[in-house]
Amino acid sequence: MSPFVIDIQDLVFQWPGKHGFRLSIPQFLVRRGERVFLQGASGSGKSTLLSLLGGVLLPQPCHLRVLDTDLTALSSSARDRFRVDHVGFLFQQFNLVPYLSVLENVLLPCRFSQRRRRQALESAVSLEQSAARLLDQLGLDVTLARQPVTALSVGQQQRVAAARALIGHPELIIADEPTSALDAARQAEFLDLLLGRCDDGNVTLIFVSHDQRLGSHFSRTVDLNELCVTTVP
Ligand SMILES: Nc1ncnc2c1ncn2[C@@H]1O[C@H](COP(=O)(O)OP(=O)(O)OP(=O)(O)O)[C@@H](O)[C@H]1O
Fold it and tell me: Which of 58, 170, 172, 209 is the least buried, fewest Cβ under 10 Å from its Cβ?
């Protein structure tokens, strides 16, 4: 097994029909269990890179291995399967499903992935117990579990989104500015809880933020501008 959860060599990506932006990364390696703080100027391609790591986007032919899987060799549906089985996504806007309850939102990955369902049940008697435990560990009052998710505050919704990303022990968590809606005190508190959960599961975390103060919580800071080769397309 490779020691690297992310192993990129000579990656190039351009949005179809869009000139002026080109992501070009000669090498990017992330070891199992690392917590990487990814920063870079607005528009430098951080979210684009996260989508490539999650198999949402495909680059030009290159070496792109995530969790020992060659993403460039997978079909679109196989990449979808890979993503739901192995990657927890945390978004800036949370992307919760507004007509579902808190619990139903957290359990969504288990609906789509047998692997996540099985792993969630390894340490709990039911999926609901697994979800409730995670919510509790992330500081959410579990009596809210049956509430519509839209009835929760922004900070509470963020904990729901984090529990959804973590349920069923995905090996890689990809977080795209998940703390930007919170004030500084809540950001630090949330980050500590998220990192604590990642430590417990030996999870690898790639975390994007513009807030450089958060960088001290991570094992490594990577600046996308330094990672990239800047060439005129
Ligand atoms: N769906 C898309 N279609 C076409 N171009 C896109 C798309 N998404 C992003 N881009 C372009 O790709 C470039 C990089 O955008 P991206 O969102 O990855 O940067 P970013 O570093 O995450 O920015 P920010 O920090 O502002 O969120 C930008 O020029 C953007 O306009």
Answer: 58
